[in-house]
Amino acid sequence: METTRVLIVDDEKDFLDLFMKRMVRRNLDVHAVTSGPEALEYLAANEVDVVVLDVKMPGMDGIETLREIKKRHPHLEVIMLTGHGSVDSGLKGMSLGAYDYVMKPFTIDDLLERIQKARERVDINRGKAR
Amino acid sequence: MQGDQPNTHVPTWLAWVLPLAVPIAAVLAGPWTATVAALAASAAAFSVVFALGRALERARDRAVSIQDQLIQSQKMASIGQLASGIAHEVNTPLMVIGQDVELLEMVLAAGNMPEKMHAEAESCLEGIRRQVDRCGEITHKLLGFARKSDTVAQRIDANALVEDMVMLVEREAKRQGIVMQREYGQVPEVDTDPPLLRQIILNLLNNAAQAVGRDGVVRVSTRNASGRLEIAVQDTGPGIEPEVMDRLFDPFFTTKPPGQGTGLGLSTSLYIANRLGGTITAANAPNGGALFTVRLPLDAAAPAAAKAA
Fold it and tell me: Looking at this predicted complex, what is its ipTM?
């Protein structure tokens, strides 16, 4: 299977560092950015399969970013990360087409599994488009 | 669908006449040993006929509910078309208003209006923006409701998926003393569209948590009910008023206070369930609370069929 290209968007630098360290070893091509606008900029120029997106970010929040991502790249799958389990943002995110919701703290293995499932869906959709 | 219609006109008099006729005939025919045998036979005949009757009744109930669901899903489809039509029409003026607000904000920033008026104008614009956002949210939900995009079937562990949503709701519910109870049964892996199923479950759980209020209980259960995945959400809230029951899944119907619900949650959930080849039913539980049951096919064939509809 091809390498899964992942973009992770989170304003917490420490979390990103940890994430990158753990993920690079696992056949994932991971890139990290710290804000919604940066994410959109990156996606405009690079091919990505799955976005891992923090809900709570200053400025453009995760929901707003999700909305834009889905508008511009409908076949890309987005996994939302949430720190404090907001049902409201969950409902909004799901109706905007988020693939999955993961609550912090989570294990890397768990997230990895979800990323692979999201990737599977991207492949199914690409197969249909062909 | 028509093939599922059982013949419900089996004469019920048969159930009475047949078992009675057998011993009477036996008595008329001769010795008491034969009568005993005939009585035993008649008891057997009784049970066979009654089992048959019960099966027929069940089949008839199922036919009625299949027909109800068919009508419901056709209703949903036409409402979906209407909804998306309205949403598209309303979206354009909304966008224009939104952009005009932005423009006005720029004009306001550049101009030299007296401070008090400036603040007032700013708060007016903020108000307009908020309402435009709100309308946008509604049109978005309407479009989501009518979304015709294909379902994508993936093999998933349904219990794990449900548990994810339970945990999401539990964190908030805990603060109000609401207890989330789980009764996960043995269910095989399911081929279904995971994000769509998550949306349904989260919606039902959220409704239940809102209905029970402080110190309530929400019970979530899963089971394999003769080839279908059954997910039930039951709460200890006030239940569903009988006069509301028929309209529960209608778009824009809500029993929540104004501003707290658009009345699109359940209708969207039902619409999604239909697309997944499944159904949602509502009832009042024996404890008086509401009980919502989602039933989904265990394999991917059904979602594909639903998609074509």
Answer: 0.90
